[in-house]
Design a protein that fits this description.
alpha/beta; Rossmann fold; 20 strands; about 350 residues; 4-stranded parallel beta sheet; globular; 2 domains
Length: about 350
């Protein structure tokens, strides 16, 4: 007889964990230990479900490096006892958080599925139940005795995405997320269909490595027509700054005025890593394709290719915490480590 998969739900906070008290109309925390009582549909899934919650659930806007460390520590502690993990958090920063977790878990061989909802689990028209039920179903899906999914993913409104490829695009629609540069890993309709070709293939003999160090001495510098030297200089002169996500135009283009290039050159000379990421929701940076990006490449600005800003932040924090030479850093950033960019 096949052993039932064991799934651990980790509730960090967020809308999905709230339920309405119909007497007072106030929202209160949902007790995930009573999950099958509140969502009897889960009995239809062939798995054992247990849950753990943050002592103090936090709004996703308050997520910090310490929150990331808490999530990966829970996964690390329970990794051998469960077949999959469903992480519940607020949707506002879910792409940032799940991207970071993907870099913190190396050689992952089990599913870690992030999900949440736009409406509380107790609302009449909530999206929470479907998101939660299907995320659990994905987490316990197996083929040949092994998990079908063995990476960090984000499930929302009938689609499973690679977490570090996602961006939240809508605050009001149930279809809150998209992955413009990488196809969905699974789609839920009448059937749950996995696009197995696009899934990461794990190294079967590799042990899980948990990376808990993240260096958050970084900044985002978004370019816009008319940006002043004072603004650029103030960002690049930030105390203890180690890295900058430079959000450029189109395929990686930036102004080529002397003052701007001099400020970048000065920052790079101070060993500040500058990553070129496009402001466009789709497409990739192609440094050197146009004249306005040739100089960036020559200065030593690192190409983010088709990485999202959310994933670039996570990857920058991760790589800055490693003791890498300049060449190693550039090499690691410009190649996929967790399927976050396309070569």
């Amino acid at each position: 007889m096949t052993k039932k998969p064991k799934i651990l739900i980790v509730y960090t906070g967020g809308t999905i964990g709230m339920i309405k008290d119909y007497k007072t109309n106030a929202l209160k925390a949902f007790d995930f230990n009573q999950i099958t009582k509140n969502i009897p549909e889960l009995y239809q899934l062939n798995c054992a479900i247990e849950s753990i919650s943050f002592d103090e659930p936090i709004d996703s806007s308050n997520m910090t490096i310490a929150s990331y460390q808490k999530i990966v520590t829970i996964i690390e502690t329970h990794y051998k006892n469960y077949d999959g993990f469903v992480i519940l958090s607020g949707s506002d920063t879910m792409s940032y958080v799940s991207s970071a977790i993907s870099f913190m878990l190396e050689h992952l061989q089990k599913p870690v599925i992030f999900t949440g909802s736009q409406l509380p689990i107790g609302d009449l028209r909530t999206d929470a139940k479907e998101n939660l039920i299907t995320s659990i179903e994905i987490a316990c899906a197996q083929k040949g005795g092994r998990p079908i999914v063995s990476e960090v993913c984000l499930y929302f409104e009938y689609k499973l995405y690679r977490a570090n490829r996602t961006t939240k695009i809508n605050a009001e629609q149930f279809e809150a997320f998209t992955s413009m540069n990488y196809p969905p890993l699974a789609e839920s309709g009448v059937h749950l269909n996995f696009n197995e070709y696009y899934l990461l293939k794990p190294e079967l003999d590799a042990e899980l490595v948990v990376r808990k160090k993240m260096n958050n001495n970084i900044a985002i510098l978004k370019l816009f027509p008319g940006i002043t030297p004072n603004v650029v200089e103030s960002v690049l002169a930030t105390k203890d700054l180690k890295g900058v996500i430079l959000e450029t135009y189109g395929s990686g283009n930036a102004l080529n005025q002397k003052w701007f290039l001099e400020l970048l050159k000065k920052a790079i000379h101070k060993k500040i890593k500058i990553i070129n990421v496009t402001q466009c929701v789709a497409g990739a940076v192609s440094q050197g394709h146009y004249e306005t990006s040739i100089v960036l490449k020559e200065l030593g600005v690192i190409s983010g290719r088709d990485i999202t800003t959310e994933s670039a932040i996570a990857k920058l924090m991760y790589l800055l915490s490693e003791n890498l030479s300049n060449e190693e850093f550039t090499g690691y950033f410009e190649k996929p480590l967790r399927g976050e960019l396309t070569l």
